Amino acid sequence: MFSPYFIVEKNTRKDVSTVEDPFDSPTYNIPEKPVTFTEGASYSIIILAGLGVAAAAAYAVFKELIFEPKEYKIFNKALKRIQDDSQVRVRIGSPITGYGQESRNRAARQRIPNRIFTDEDGVEHVQINFYIRGPHGAGKVSAEMFKDKVDKQWKYTYLIVETMQPSRSQLILESYMPAPVAA
To answer: Rounded to an integer, what distance in angstroms lies between the CA atom of residue 86 and that of residue 173?
Structure first.
C-alpha cells in the first residue's frame, strides 16, 4: 500500500551544468555592443563631455594653486610697498593688512577687484583696488602696474593710498610718467 504522502523522489541531485551563476543575473541585460550607431555616438558624447568637465576643473584648480594670477602678484607687491612706507605706518599703524572688499564674507575679502588690459602700444596693464587696515586706522589703495617691454618687469604707473581713519588724507607713493617719444 502506497500512501501519496510518503513518495520520495529518487533523483534529487541537480545537474551542475543547469545551476545558474548568481553573478550573471545582473548583467544579462547589457548588450555586448551598442544596438545602433546613434546609441554608440551618444555614449561617446556623454563620456567626452564628462572628461571635458573634469579637465576644466583640474585646469582651474591647477591654475589657482600653482600659478599666481597677475592681480595677486600686483596686490602683493603693492601691499609690501605700503607696509614698508613710513608715512602710511605713521597714519594707520603697524602691522598693515590688505584685503579685497569691505565685507564679512571671507570669499569677498579674498577677491581683489582688478582690470587687466593692453594699451595701444601692446603693453599689458593691471589695475587693482583694495583696502588696508592697521591698528590705528584704515584706508583704500588704488594701483596700476604695467609690464615693461625692455626688462619684462612689473612697474608702477601709480600707487595711491587714501586713508579714511583716523583722518582723511591721500598719499601718492608711486607715480610714473613715461618719457616723451622724440619724433
So the answer is: 11
Under 8 Å between Cβ of 99 and 79: no
Q: What is the pLDDT of residue 36?
A: 77
Cell numbers at residue 128, please? 587693482
**At residue 1, what is the residue type?**
M
SS3 at position 101: coil
**Which domains can be identified in the chain, with CATH numbers?**
18-66 (no CATH), 70-175 (3.10.450.320)
Contact of 159 with 141, CB cutoff 8 Å: yes
Looking at the whole model, is its pTM more than 0.70? no
Report the b/e string of 57-94 with b at 16+ CB within 10 A.
eeeeeeeeeeeeebbeebbebbbebbbebeebbebbee
Express each pLDDT in 41-71 by its tens digit: 888 899 999 999 999 988 877 776 677 778 8
Q: How far is CA 42 from CA 29, 32, 35, 111, in A?
A: 19, 16, 12, 40
In tens, the pLDDT along 156-175 reads 889 999 988 778 888 888 88
Q: Based on the number of CB atoms within 10 Å of its own CB, is 138 exposed (0-12), middle (13-18) or buried (19 or more)?
A: middle
Which residues are bridge partners to 134 per DSSP? Answer: 137
